[in-house]
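residues and backbone:
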Amino acid sequence: MLKSTTMRDLRQQIGREEFDYPALISSLSGYANPRDKVTRLLRRGDIIRVKKGLYVFGEALRRRPFSREVLANLIYGPSFISLDSALSFHGMIPERVDTVTSVTTKRPKAFITPVGSFIYRRTPRAYFHLGMDRVEGGDVAFLIAVPERALADKIRDDRGHALRNESDVARYLFDDLRIDREAFARLDSGFLATIAAAAGSRKIAICVHLLRRVKGEA
């Protein structure tokens, strides 16, 4: 009975599935040794340590699936989801992406955790916030790139393709990435041009020219 009461109280005090160490310790403040209690919760699988100071509830206590997008924002920051993960989120590529990809102003880093892999690519601080959006739903909220920024980050980050002209970019987008053509045509060419200028990227600028031609603006 003590265990069930404790777990009920814990869930009542921590409403989210993703939570940090201060929230956890605060919820266990009635214990003489809350740190020992945290150790027992981890050992039983009632909570799972994603990284130091960041947790999710175990399956038995979970009220909803935890959000990997929320975790991506919390694991390493400042950051927001972009590249393949954002392209998949916006329905621009057909594949479901297992590794969550983000951009950050800090050095690149990768985290392999009990709940998945998270990769962070470095982006210039000067245009870090350009094209960053906040998505909210229920008690979940996270930062993610708009489609134009996600595509620009992917093009800029990919060092394996020489994109010298529109034909190169078209093959890369539609053959290699399998970008949805209709979704591509709906992108804002003006905003993508703004990103290209801020990033100082010729590859993104070529993509802008292609987009304008597809949209009939060129």
Summary: Residues 2-61 form a domain with the Arc Repressor Mutant, subunit A fold (CATH 1.10.10). The longest helix spans residues 202-215. DSSP finds ten helices and nine strands in the chain.
